[in-house]
Model the fold of this input.
Amino acid sequence: MPGSSRGLIALLVTLAVALIASAAAEPPDVKLISQGREVTLEDHLVPGKLVVFDFFAEWCAPCRYVTPLLERLAEQHPDRLALRTIDVIDWSSPVARQHGLSAIPHLVLFGPDGTRLAEGDAERVLAVLDSQLGGAVDGVPVARGGSGVPAPVWIGLVAALIVGSIVLRRRARPPAAAEPSAPPQPENSASGSPRIWFAVVRGSLDGPYSIEQLTELRRSGALPDHAPVRRRGDATWRRLDGVMREE
Done:
């Protein structure tokens, strides 16, 4: 058999083996289990696996680092780790009130036997998770031989913890008798516009609002023309008056 034919056959065999191995690989155990609704964490445990619950929101900058890292870990350890994510939406959502959240990202880690191992900020819980998956040196995550966690993941983790140190906390609003209070937020506006807008109201992030509610806040004086507003999913803030002109 000519050498070129033998080489082609070897290549085809290699590709076939790779495809079979890829098809047989266990997919990562990652699921979104709530978008603002109340959820009982114990109902989503997986016997025999570590399960980490990740409370996040689209507008939370540190969450954009922590959640992908957890997804990477779930990919690396599909047989040992399950990831369950909870979209908080905003501080007034039922799930945020249910779990008494005051900062995100907020993680909860359960062991394979259903025992709650850790809960709180990302640094604390990820340190425990690292120990469960392979260990750490003096509390600093490292990539060890056989741990299954590549170095780039831990490099990203360090960056996440630095960014995550600026935690988005809910700030108490001081009384301001001279300022008009924001009107109550009905579940649905008259026109049925979705509540997808967030605004900085007297120094605090508030929302979501419909475009009609933003208009009413502006008309009542609760929001000035220069107030920063942002639509859910947008990466940048805009002035209220600019948004009103576009709408």
Remarks:
- Residues 197-246 form a domain with the Dna Ligase; domain 1 fold (CATH 3.30.1490.40).
